[in-house]
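queue> holo job accepted (flavin-adenine dinucleotide)
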Amino acid sequence: MDRVKNIEKLEETGKIWDLAVIGGGASGLGVALDALSRGLSVVLVEKADFAKGTSSRSTKLVHGGVRYLAQGDVMLVFEALKERGRLLKNAPHLTHNQPFIIPIYTFFDKLQYSVGLKIYDWMAGKLRLGKSKFITKGETIKRLPKVKQEGLKGGVVYHDGQFDDARLALSIAMTCNELGGNMLNYTKVNALIKNNKGKITGIQVRDLIGKKNYQIKANMVINATGVFADKILQLDQPSAPKSIQPSQGIHLVVDQSFIGGKDALMIPKTTDGRVLFAVPWQDKLVLGTTDTIRQKAKLEPEALAKEIDFVLETASAYLTKKPTKSDVLSVYAGLRPLAAPKEGSTKTKEISRSHKVIVSDSNLVSITGGKWTTFRKMGEDTVNQFSKVSGKSIGKSQSAGIKYHGYTEHPQEGHWKGYGSNAEKIQKMIQDDPKLGELLHSEYPYTLAEVIWAVKYEMAIKVEDILARRLRILFLDAKAAKSIAPKVAQLMAKMFGKNEDWINEELSDFEKTANKYILK
Ligand SMILES: Cc1cc2nc3c(=O)[nH]c(=O)nc-3n(C[C@H](O)[C@H](O)[C@H](O)COP(=O)(O)OP(=O)(O)OC[C@H]3O[C@@H](n4cnc5c(N)ncnc54)[C@H](O)[C@@H]3O)c2cc1C
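queue> job finished
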């Protein structure tokens, strides 16, 4: 993806795009992908970096949602299981089959989870990832060496998918770019353009890097801004009521030794009725999550002290090696873009977890809610509105069969896996110039070559883009990320032809962000 070239395409006079998508998270990317699969022309603008919002802050599960099954939301689970299967097929380099174990402490739990997960297996049909089964106490301890053993009767194993959320977003953005989409990060929508009938005909954007405004004309404009959806709805209609209720979920990242194996732990009902996940991810362990109503939509939400305590206390109740604040390598928070509850209520339980496509009187199409796993179906449902909005015909969606950028049936192991078929190209860079094989940090596998790759081909613009979303080290070990920021900034400055001032500004920006991921 070449940002300079993509910005130039905005200068083409008289161009009318079929779709202008606002937001470069899972929802916007799903819309762009589906529209491109039907031969429509697409421009997508993201005000920060791709997946800077909620889409890089998930639990990293490609899942049907076992807990929604318990809540009786059968259709949602059916749909998600189908999408789970497709995602694992289309992006084997960024996803994998992850076994989960629910430790069993009562006979009732054994019955409940064994039956529930058999139904989950059956619902996945051919796309099932593995059979769920009851395992003995001995095997549970073997597979989860650090699980609480007191009162343990065994475990129920089931399978879901796991993924690298931000790198998947990038891979989809690159796929869209290859299909002819014009993908732009650091490009913010400031206004909606309307005709004299009050119908939307385009967007006004600001290139935050080149500091220039552009008008983009489009037959359909899509608001895929997650927790920021109301801001766009208010650009359309200043008196628009609140439709989104942000609900925060935090995760703590600790060393993998706290679980001691490769299987994930899932507690369907903690003492206060929530779900707890302890999932191995990129050689660390992700613990989460919470569900806390927040009033403001923020790009960089912060974990509350009570959320941190809750996750540590709950994890400690089920693990024999108990994590404390000093063990936390990174803390990250994300906001669920849930549909706002009815007036007067603040209970998240009453808020729908499925997605909604809303067409406003002005023809602005908003996609809200949903989850990462179903991003493609959300896109398809949104693009289905194209004929109604534009009066033009469209073909059938083909997005379910598209393989994502970097697809390879046999990805390499370790951190190279996420690059898929590009891994060899980066390794060739190192072969040609061994200096590029230098590690950015002695304890992590990331190399100088990957920084160059990210700048050249993955539209990385800021130091944070590299350390948070291209290499994920900010999410894995925030202090380590801070320590390598100067090296990354120097290299980027050289590539962009920037001076010391740029380096200092970048480092100060990154430090402010990274400090939010470090527990004091
Ligand atoms: C804690 C947590 C855990 C989760 N775990 C999972 C999970 O394990 N599996 C799963 O399937 N789902 C999970 N989800 C759900 C999933 O992450 C979200 O549903 C999804 O990421 C939302 O994507 P989005 O594109 O709607 O929003 P976002 O990712 O927030 O994207 C919206 C984008 O719009 C941009 N934007 C806003 N205003 C403008 C503007 N004016 N101009 C241009 N761009 C703009 C923002 O910068 C942002 O990048 C989780 C969610 C949370 C909060």
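queue> The mean pLDDT is 95.
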